[in-house]
TrEMBL record:
Keywords: Heme, Iron, Metal-binding, Oxidoreductase, Peroxidase, Signal. Belongs to the chloroperoxidase family. PROSITE patterns: HEME_HALOPEROXIDASE. This is Heme haloperoxidase family profile domain-containing protein.
Length: 371
């Protein structure tokens, strides 16, 4: 606690010193935003994750309480069209700085994602991209809005951080090697449309997802000398490929066929179609599991990476492919950033680790900092 308090005091001083008028890290923040910001820089005890909702029914989610609003100056968006959309409709704070509990509630309420997957995603990213002391995470770039950073090698870089959760061969986001790994990329979206025309008769569905996932792996192998496709990216990439035809399709239709117009709205504009209804939350866990297995089976690939040159993809037999391996990999990625945490940092890492483990029933719990 002492360490954090000192860090906190220093950071507040630093912020006061640089706040006016045009200093870099805080550029874009108004005086009012700073006033809101400073009191939030407190260590918090993270609450346990919300459980599954009682109501998982198909229902209107682009409603009058959650209208789309365009970005205001300083609002943050990132590589995930799901979270971007939830922020632009007010299911998440519109500024893009969020807590794990807010993420879990938002993905359940707004899209019908199941509790276990929501927990897995929210805490894997919190532990590797978020500030566990203030319990805040950016859904995009690094920002002072998450509070003072714990000491390096902690990154606290938000979801844009490459190599923690964000990875190569995304659907509409370019590989980190090419510069911008988080913004909507029109060239890639054109490919996405081309594949949807060729394999889906103009819509994105499971068949298209299988072909486009495989193509993006081949494309990165051929064009990105640093292409890396080991776990966690190996596992998350297959899941992300199926999310669009499960969560971005209106729940009243739920036929797994996503129109290009609606896809463009979610991927580029962070916007739900008018009258959009969420998916049936009692079905999405099975749908995601089965569909990601199916698209993998269509073109099995082993985890691996290019060896510093294009077209040198080398399988990595040590990269796990199962859920427990995914869990272990995230824990190890976290420990790299927090080799010897103390005080509130250690306490909160342990709490978050415990919450994260709830996303992996059946695996063996790890206690990197002792029990
Ligand atoms: C539950 C919390 C979630 C977290 C923490 C999260 C995080 C992320 C991150 C970090 C990426 C970038 C990975 C990459 O491509 O390199 C991503 C991509 C993606 N996410 Fe999410 N996500 C969440 C929920 C959702 C939901 C609910 C949806 C759908 C409604 C969704 C749809 C997608 C899609 C389609 C991509 C691929 C984007 C692309 O490559 O074009 N995600 N997510």
């Amino acid at each position: 606690m002492a360490k954090f308090t000192t860090l906190l005091a220093l950071s507040v001083l630093a912020i006061q010193a640089v706040a006016f008028p045009q200093h870099q890290p805080l550029a874009g923040l108004t005086e009012r935003e700073l006033e809101d910001l400073l009191p939030r820089f407190k260590p918090v005890v993270p609450p346990p994750p919300p459980g599954p909702p009682k109501d998982t029914s198909v229902k209107l989610v682009n409603d009058k309480d959650h209208p789309y609003e365009p970005l205001r100056k300083g609002d943050i968006r990132g590589p995930c069209p799901g979270l971007n959309t939830l922020a632009s409709h007010g299911y998440l704070p519109r500024n893009g700085v969020v807590t794990p509990a807010q993420i879990i509630n938002a993905v359940q309420d707004g899209f019908g994602m199941d509790n276990e997957l929501a927990i897995l995603l929210a805490y894997s990213t919190m532990l590797t991209d978020g500030n566990v002391v203030t319990n805040l995470m950016s859904i995009g770039q690094k920002t002072p809005l998450t509070g003072p950073d714990p000491p390096a090698p902690a990154i606290v870089g938000g979801l844009n951080t490459h190599g923690t959760f964000e990875g190569d061969a995304g659907l509409t986001r370019a590989d980190f090697f090419f510069g911008d790994n988080h913004s909507f990329n029109q060239t890639l979206f054109n490919e996405f449309v081309e594949f949807s025309n060729k394999f889906g008769g103009g819509v994105y569905n499971q068949t298209v997802a299988a072909e486009y996932r495989f193509f993006r792996i081949q494309q990165s192998t051929a064009e990105n000398p640093t292409f890396t496709f080991v776990t966690p990216r190996f596992v998350t990439a297959y899941r992300e490929s199926v999310f669009p035809f499960i969560f971005f399709v209106d729940g009243r239709k739920a036929d797994g066929q996503l129109s290009m117009k609606d896809a463009f709205g979610f991927f580029n504009e962070s916007r739900m179609p008018d009258g959009f209804h969420r998916a049936d939350g009692s079905k999405t866990a099975d749908l995601v599991g089965n569909a990601s297995d199916a698209i993998f089976a269509a073109h099995p690939v082993q985890p691996g990476a290019n060896a510093g040159k294009v077209n040198t993809y080398t399988p990595d037999p040590n990269s796990p492919t199962d859920d427990c391996g995914l869990y272990e990999t995230f824990v190890n990625l976290m420990v790299k950033q927090y080799p010897n945490p103390q005080g509130v940092l250690r306490t909160n890492l342990n709490l978050n680790l415990g919450f994260f483990f709830q996303g992996f029933p059946g695996c063996t719990q790890l206690f990197p900092f002792g029990q």
